[in-house]
Amino acid sequence: MKKHNFSAGPCILPPEVLQQASEAVINFDDLDLSLLEISHRSKNFVAVMERAQALVRELLEVPEGYSVLFLQGGASLQFVMAAFNLMKAENGKAAYLNTGTWATKALKEARRLGEVVEVASAKDQNFNYIPKNYEVPNDADYFHLTSNNTIFGVQIKDFPQTEAPLVCDMSSDIFSKPINVSDFGLIYAGAQKNMGPAGATVVIVKDELLGHTGRDIPAYLDYQTHIGKDSMFNTPPVFAVYVSMLTLEWIKAQGGVKAMQKRNEAKAQAMYGEIDRNTCFEGTAARDDRSTMNACFLPKAGVPTERFDELWKAAGINGINGHRSVGGYRASMYNALPQESVDALIEVMQNFEKEQG
Amino acid sequence: MKKHNFSAGPCILPPEVLQQASEAVINFDDLDLSLLEISHRSKNFVAVMERAQALVRELLEVPEGYSVLFLQGGASLQFVMAAFNLMKAENGKAAYLNTGTWATKALKEARRLGEVVEVASAKDQNFNYIPKNYEVPNDADYFHLTSNNTIFGVQIKDFPQTEAPLVCDMSSDIFSKPINVSDFGLIYAGAQKNMGPAGATVVIVKDELLGHTGRDIPAYLDYQTHIGKDSMFNTPPVFAVYVSMLTLEWIKAQGGVKAMQKRNEAKAQAMYGEIDRNTCFEGTAARDDRSTMNACFLPKAGVPTERFDELWKAAGINGINGHRSVGGYRASMYNALPQESVDALIEVMQNFEKEQG
User: Fold this and answer.
1) Closest Cβ opposite residue A199 in set B220, B240, B319
2) What is the CATH number of the domain that holds B210?
3) Does the predicted interface ipTM exceed a cut of 0.90?
4) Closest-CA residue in chain A for B75?
5) Is the dihedral of CA A312, A177, A327, A272 positive or negative?
């Protein structure tokens, strides 16, 4: 039975990508060797790394003066690397917008290296909205944002204009819509939502921002190390980079990030429409800040969730249990999730409502 | 045509492992979902992580009081983490044995954090031997070794006994033979030789050594972070951990690391026997320090290598070009390389010698 996979991440990938990835594990590029057992310096894998980087540039229209890297360690290592690379050694000062669990973790890592100004926090309402009308100190070395919050289902719709370079963790919405890369100094994202499997991290960094902190940075943590070695400073996560490349090719073939945006907005509109209409459920995120990626909703008081859980499981739906910090349900609708999966969930919600009378 | 894969790493993996890995990319555990698209917190993947850790413990007979972790970033990130976790913040002092490219890199990372004593270096002879009879300062926070040098083909056969805890980068020979884990304070290894594909790193650390540096360690770099979260502090490299688990199961089914040692010694004996016998070639490493994993050899003066290259390529042999720092040839004979591949290479060397008359 085909599953409707709403997993929050690692998450659904296109079936064509999975098919190609599966084949490459046995025989890659007709070499009669597995992708897993060839040198990362072979011309076949170097071509994969170059193609993956070129696709990032093409899909996001990355301007000149930016480097594109594939690293390891996920966003959690980027919390450390962003601060090491951009916060000045003397009187370092960074600004952070606190929009949830991951933003809080990023901010804590920066505090080890210098002063951190939390310009605003949505903690007062369990991170169910994106704070606005905050002030960012002009003398901050950078201003850090988390574009989408998978746990609470809120998303920044308009990025602020600031003196300080913008640093953005886009782990859960990169490649879901167009962005203006030149507005940012640093973008990073774990691959395991819209871009590929767990194990690779993409970094897009403005070269001129690097090398000015006066800080002695460990080699692995220094973006300049990886830029100088074309993401081959050490053995890269070969398979995760390859599957990311395949997924980026798929995005391109589908019409690029504009086409993704159109699909994602249609899915989100249908999903939130049902959440608002259905008398058994209610959304948790502030309406203006609702994420197109992750729709969080709670059963209304007295609604028997056991029966609802039976119904969606019977319909082949997977992964809609909410995060423990919010409870209820979360429908994650990343790029590869088809409209028919959203329609299937909506049908279950409607049938459940009818049953409840 | 079946290839004889002598790649130095990423390297050959058992065909059964590749088959299972390929299938899991389409349908994992009969979930009708790919391994790449399920939550790392699902019970199916948690079972993989636990099994992988348990197999490390079983195969290496890891004693109580040690933690086993699966991380990202390869040995290169461990160069940084080892120093952050073990070198004291005040008057920190570490000892390093310099046996090659990777040892040199490890040592450089430690220098950023404190005093480093290079107890001996084999640089004077292009790292073609393992220094002996060096003194390790008793007050060193730790003593760092690299057990096997893939580039120059030398391997430590007997580990020293020191006051300072031993830290060892075993990236290229872990699981190739039994080791006495209790002799070490910290062992780390990138997976991509004997253990699995690129993208996972195994760490075995003695718990009582941690937490005593007085250093503020970034969360991702702190072993205690990962121990406290059972290697799930952030999304682990799911596929690389899974394939490592499969490879460790394979090692177990073959008879464990003692059986691997027997096979590896037989392969190395045959290979070095031919290098010494054949009048066209000569080995580069000091005899007592020759690696069972990587046999490096050079053509003797006047030997026409183009013809030799033709012959081994025609025999389906892959990956025996030497590293640019040494030149010539390198036959890497990791666990999964069968004796028949070594025999095939030896046959080519013998045929070539006959041709040369």
Assistant:
1) B240
2) 3.40.640.10
3) yes
4) A234
5) negative
Catalytic site residues of A?
A: 102, 169, 193
Q: What is the number of structural domains in chain A?
A: 2
Interface check for A28 against chain B (CB to CB < 8 A): the answer is no
| Beta-sheet pairing, B201-206 with B186-190 | antiparallel
Task: Give this prediction's pTM.
Answer: 0.98
User: DSSP code of B172?
Assistant: T
Same domain? A173 vs A296: no
* Contacts A–B by Cβ distance under 8 A: 191
B74-117, pLDDT tens digit by residue? Answer: 999 999 999 999 999 999 999 999 999 999 999 999 999 999 99
Q: Could you read off the pLDDT of B50-80 as tens digits, one per residue?
A: 999 999 999 999 999 999 999 999 999 999 9
Q: What residues in B contact A18, CB-CB < 8 Å? A: 25-26, 34, 36-37
Instruction: Please indicate, yes or no, if residue B117 is contained in any of the structural domains.
Output: yes
Q: Choose from A34, A102, A109, A225 for mutation: most chain B CBs within 10 A.
A: A34
**What confidence score (pLDDT) does residue B1 get?**
64
